[in-house]
Amino acid sequence: MALSFHLVKRPDMRKDAAEGSKLFYAQVRSLKKLDFNKLCDLIAVRSTAFIGDVMLVIEGLLSVMEERLEEGDVIQMGRLGNFRMVAGSKGTENEKDFNVSLFNKARIVFSPGTMLNEIRKNAKYEKMDTETVTPPTGGGSDRPEIE
């Protein structure tokens, strides 16, 4: 399989670009979503577990991740990668002036593991026929934030 892409014309942001010049850039687009039930069903088909068992294990995993991330642990998930919580803050001139209200919103950072890095390294691309493509519903970003 290959990642589908289409070309979009955007302003040329190079320092030496002529005023108003534009370039074509590739934009990878996901055309389908795999919902939780289908994901669990696909996992169940590849194992001896029933779909309900798979759902139970994944929900348990999420519960443990929530608990451990709140404690500041790095969650290592083997070939999948690691999850960790990070947060920066505003600064103060004196240590005694610092308080927790100065923290920015915490984020969860995911670092891909060996399996995902291999998938990324071996990615193949295929140009989409843009006249027959409808954008995916629901909007959003290609980099969803984990809440």
UniProtKB/TrEMBL annotation:
Keyword Repeat on entry: no
Transmembrane segment boundaries: none
Segments for region (Disordered): 126-147
Cross-referenced InterPro entries: HU-HIG (IPR041607), HU_DNA-bd_put (IPR005902), IHF-like_DNA-bd_dom_sf (IPR010992)
GO molecular function (one): DNA binding
Domain HU, residue spans: 1-126
Superkingdom of source: Bacteria
Pfam families: HU-HIG
Alphabetically ordered keywords of this record: DNA-binding
NCBIfam families: HU_rel
Protein name: HU domain-containing protein
Organism: Parabacteroides goldsteinii dnLKV18
